[in-house]
Amino acid sequence: MKEIEKNEIKRLSDLLDAIRHQQAALSLVDSAEKYAELEAEKAKLETEIARLREVHSQKLSKEAQKLAKLPFSRAITKKEQANMGALKKSVRGIVVVHPMTALGREMGLQVMTGFAKTEF
Known about the structure:
By secondary structure, this protein is mostly helical. Helix content is 67%, strand content 9%. It is built from five helices and three strands. The protein is rod-shaped. 4% of the residues are buried.
């Protein structure tokens, strides 16, 4: 679902850019009606892009809230990072969040962190 939203935002942004280029090429004196029509379309696209971005950020927030509610979390050591498969097998249901991902940035993480229902 996230990929679909990203693609839709990209498509709408491209349309908005095309409209801006069309407006720049138009003369206000000769084609005022066409300019006004493009301006209305531009406003509609901007509001839709803003709405899609808000939906995207709310979904991230829901996931961040779900992880924050898990009873146990701690930084993942370098040794554990080297052998992630073993860590995931030993701790069922662990979710590892990297600080450079969108979720990690939103949560304000500084190091790779694991969230789980049980202590690990």
